[in-house]
Amino acid sequence: MSRVASEAAPAGSIDASGSGNEESGPPGARSRFAAWLRRHRVPLLLLLLLGAVAIASVWGRADHDTTALSPANPAPDGAMAAAEILADQGVDVQHHQTMAEAQAALEDNPGATLLFLDPAGFLTGEQRQDLADAAGRVVLVEPSFEQLADFAPQIRSAGLLPEEPDSHRLDAGCSNEDAEAAGAIEAGGKTYRGPVTCFPAPGSEGSDAAGSYAATPGGSAVVLGSADLIANESVAREGNAALAFRTLGSDETLVWYQAGPFDVPPSEGPADPFSLLPAWVNPLLFWLLLVAGAAAFWRGRRLGPLMEEPMPVIVHAAETAEGRARLYQDSQAVAHAAATLRAAALTRLAAHLRVGPGAGVDAVTRATANASGRSYTETDHLLNQRLPGTGAELVRWAQDLKDLEEEATSS
What we know:
Layout: H1 2-8, H2 29-39, H3 41-63, H4 80-88, E1 92-96, H5 99-108, E2 113-117, H6 125-134, E3 137-141, H7 145-151, E4 156-160, E5 169-171, H8 177-182, E6 184-186, E7 190-193, E8 196-200, E9 211-215, E10 221-224, H9 240-248, E11 253-258, H10 281-299, H11 317-331, H12 334-353, H13 361-372, H14 376-385, H15 391-409
Parallel strand pairs: 1-11, 2-3, 2-11, 3-10
Antiparallel strand pairs: 4-7, 5-6, 8-9, 9-10
């Protein structure tokens, strides 16, 4: 009998010793891990997605430079196209982002051209003067007043070009070789005046014309009034490329320097906040300290012994009412006193006329009108609508209110 049962048992059944195969036994570590994955699949997918986004963003930033007008930036606001064409023409384009590197490159290459870009104004006047002394020739792009004073004092800022795109096409309008080779440019930005001024703004003519290109007589300092002349998205317009290449590629070496926050010189010493205050502040502070000490001594003097008073203290209702009335009179709180008298009268009338604890103002008013024999309109005006404005009006109204209450409660 047992043999037949044993032969008839399925292959995965438990034998007499209590052992069985893996499928019928308790779940193992692999099955528990699979169950945990199923329970937490949504948070895990979100974490994986966030990690992929973070890696992609870091990887994308590491691929290329994103700084505007950087020779390594292929974006529309970068200047990779101009830098690569200059390199193809044999110009050694050296890109530096720290002042120490740029100054070392200028010292190693005497007479090199310095392309100076500092739109945020990180450098001080002393730092700019050191770069001007080390550079043989300087090209500035949309410089500020301070940068012009240090690099090209003969050139002055003259304002902005009109915002209309139609007025951004500018003809050379001068006898400069680089400007004549370009013929015309298409750029916005700023205008400048100098010994050599080209590409004058619309409506600016004569010897005092303001243009998008200015230079010193010997060409030691050149100012480009617009970043469009070297930016990737606009360098191919009109004669922008010709002007940019002739301006930047006149020497064998071009030091392309973009100032950054790391070039900001550290403070020589910690700033004393008291040095920023006027001279009269210290005596005033000393006087305030003396006054505060005297006030503390005055208010903190030793008081006399405490007086004992038997408790509880009995205060008569008439004294309380009189004291509150005097407070209202001293503060001229006519409206507050009227509200108190009105609430007390309504409470007494409701209790006497037995209109119920939950009755509203309208129910009490109707019951009072019926009990006093007056009309509802007159009663409502006296009880709810009348607002005394002065002390004399408050006295008259309180007397009228008393008369109404006596008429309603006399029956």
